[in-house]
């Protein structure tokens, strides 16, 4: 993606945090016609030393897994909070509006996960992420039901080979930061999340940096 240096995250943990806070990703592959094929799906972020992988699954009826099998390289995007930015946050009037957003792009290498035990381990990661109380219910559903459900999905590991994180918060215009953060802090959920990220990155009262 287009990534000007002033919007490039310097700390990879910021990308990891966004992926965990906004887990519904877009998995993008090339289909058999040579066109992009996109599947929205939640992904679990797995850090093992210096290795970063994303774990997920799709319905067996979804052809996406076949595209991953044929062409394992793919792209995953995570969209974090995003909101309009009014030019009224500037002290002067000769300005134009823009849109602020936080986004992570991952280039990945896909590997299908086929055994029941490995699929079960993957599902338990996702359950722990989103509904820990469901874990006991899943364990008590019985082996026959679990195997039937497993047959309806295709699970995969997406090993991250390249990571880009864009934090677009008007970093290069410090004269706007105080008014921008004040406007976002009084806004909707997305805007309040951006206000929090401005504080996290030190974008307030003209102070720039990353914590």
Topology:
Blueprint: H1 12-21, E1 24-30, E2 36-42, E3 44-48, E4 51-59, H2 64-70, E5 73-85, E6 98-113, H3 116-130, H4 134-139, H5 143-151, E7 153-168, H6 177-185, H7 189-200
Antiparallel strand pairs: 1-2, 1-5, 3-4, 4-7, 5-6, 6-7
Helix pairs in contact: 6-7
Q: Short summary of the structure?
A:
This protein has 211 residues and is an alpha+beta fold. The chain has helices spanning 12-21, 64-70, 116-130, 134-139, 143-151, 177-185, 189-200; strands at residues 24-30, 36-42, 44-48, 51-59, 73-85, 98-113, 153-168.
Q: With helices defined by DSSP (H or I, 4 residues minimum), what is the helix count?
A: 7
| CATH level-four homologous superfamily name | Electron Transport, Fmn-binding Protein, Chain A
Helix share, percent: 25-40%
How far do the termini sit from each other? Answer: 24 Å
**What structural category characterises the helix and strand content?**
alpha+beta
- Side by side, the strands of the main sheet go 2-1-5-6-7-4-3
